[in-house]
Amino acid sequence: MRKIGYQLAKLIYRMIASVLVIFFINVTGGLIGFHLPINVITVGMTTLLSGYGLMGLILAKTILF
């Protein structure tokens, strides 16, 4: 049970970190002056990829080990 809790905490920490990084990129991009639709699409894609990538890795890890 402790191992699962640790994995979950790590996952949540990584998700928060990735969200903060994406938010920071978004803000800096907005300040520089990127076009909004492209920015929203890229942020959405990176969020999906990072989220599902991490979930996939965690699931694979829990199934394999």
Topology:
Elements: H1 2-32, H2 36-64
Explain how this protein is built.
This protein is an all-alpha fold and 65 residues long. The protein is 92% helix and 0% strand. It has one domain. Helix 1 runs antiparallel to helix 2. The chain has helices at residues 2-32, 36-64. InterPro entries: BofA. It comes from Halolactibacillus alkaliphilus. Keywords: Membrane, Transmembrane, Transmembrane helix.
Which characteristics define this entry?
mainly alpha; 0% strand; transmembrane helix; 65 residues; single chain; 2 helices; BofA
Concise structural overview:
Helices cover about 90% and strands about 0% of the residues. The chain contains two helices and no strands. α1 runs antiparallel to α2.
| Biggest sheet character | none
Strand content: under 5%
State the secondary-structure class: mainly alpha
Order of helices and strands: HH
Radius of gyration, in Å, reads 15 Å
- The total strand number stands at 0
Count of DSSP-assigned helices: 2
Number of domains: 1
Helix content: over 70%
State the end-to-end distance: 14 Å
What average pLDDT do the residues reach?
A: 70
Principal-axes shape call: elongated
Oligomer: single chain
Query: Unreliable segments (pLDDT under 50, ≥5 consecutive)?
Result: none
